[in-house]
Amino acid sequence: MGKITGFLEIDRQDRKYQPASDRIRHFKEFVIPLGEKAVRDQASRCMDCGIPYCHNGCPVNNQIPDWNDLVYRDNWEEACRNLHSTNNFPEFTGRICPAPCEAACTLNLIEQPVTIKTIECAIVDRGWAEGWLPPQPAARRSGKRVAIVGSGPAGLACAQQLSRAGHEVHVFEKNAKAGGLLRYGIPDFKLEKHLIDRRLSQIEAEGASFHYGAHIGVTMKAKTLLDEFDAVVLAGGSEHPRDLPIEGRDLRGVHFAMDFLPQQNRRNSGEPLQNIEPILAGGKHVVVIGGGDTGSDCIGTSFRQGALSVTQLEIMPAPPEKENKLLTWPDWPLKMRTSSSQAEGAGRDFSVMTRRLIGEGGQVTAIECVRLDDKMQAIAGSEFNLKADLVLLAMGFVHPLHEGMLAELGVALDKRGNVAADTATYRTTLDKVFSAGDMRRGQSLVVWAIREGRQAAREVDLFLMGETTLPR
Description:
Elements: H1 6-9, E1 16-17, H2 20-23, E2 31-32, H3 36-44, H4 54-57, H5 64-72, H6 76-84, H7 90-96, H8 100-104, H9 116-130, E3 145-149, H10 153-164, E4 168-173, H11 181-184, H12 194-205, E5 209-212, H13 222-228, E6 231-234, E7 240-241, E8 254-256, H14 257-269, E9 285-289, H15 293-305, E10 309-313, H16 325-328, E11 347-349, E12 352-360, E13 363-371, E14 384-387, E15 390-393, E16 397-399, H17 405-409, E17 433-435, H18 438-441, H19 446-465
Helix pairs in contact: 3-5, 3-9, 5-6, 6-9, 7-9, 10-19, 14-15
């Protein structure tokens, strides 16, 4: 490493946010990047670890110490090349990944991990600015045709890898634009969509074709793909939301998070909502049920729409403020985390179960709740009501949609309802059909989807050609 004592001499410094009072007035990104010198200083803090646990902490196995050292030595272009050797889309993960690599950093033992995510984002942003990321079309075409269903991070990573390997790749997307969860689920204030469009232009220039409004199994027969392509990759995501089957569920003003979030993203981009009923939080008391990232995205979006108040309920108990590192490190720990959206003024309550939704004239007006003990049992006499004009259900997703494509193909499912395929081959029970991302593994992180898309591409290439040079 370039500066062996960097971690002793330089304190951790990370990116700052615009003040909450300013950032809730718009839907643009609000993270303030570090300057070049500050990024190089932070890269110099990377230790000469005997075992760099950040490698395994990162789902795509980024070579973090290597590109940290390159940044410290001011060799940004080589750092950019190294970074892209393991991650097709570091501008996405550098913004929205929860950074399990930093949890695994040796310096996290003293609460001072290297700012890996910030450095990653700085590298790729500079790569685009300097013109270091031109399209990489294949020198030779294989003559093989591959269909990819779904253009989320798994589908896009798979498409780019297979295009670069020389295959004719066709991506089928049911929506009007590509990106999947990146475009329609993650708010613009966390990931502006021009970043996706820029990467799509690169992928198209490398030879991939995108077909929009192509809802496989609904507007287009799934078996057509089996007839027309040499391999098919199912990368449609996990879209069946966990519901809340209680009294009052059918009241107006009670919606799934993924009915709410995509609408605002479409408004921001000027994409028509068609005949969908608008869901807006302006002037309302909003209750978000579910304590995860999707719930946080609902909070931030609600504040930007002008909500009077936002309360987030979590059925699980509050996690500890700090983890016991001797027990958890280098694994991802369970501990209290406050997202940027939660810090904008949301109320948070834990160990709370929603008993029923109360309404007047068919419109939700309140939620009846009860507190739970450490055995997840209701505490007698702890009932309380919350005022609610808008209730957003953000309790996660249970499996991909079975109706349509999966039912038509007759592909086998695992015990959780996901497409059955292992990580050795990513092959389903159907000949020449593969699956990757949330459709295979269940609801997960964008970085895991990128990993699976890359690995599935390697297995498809091996299946088609009998050999492969694509990285695993």
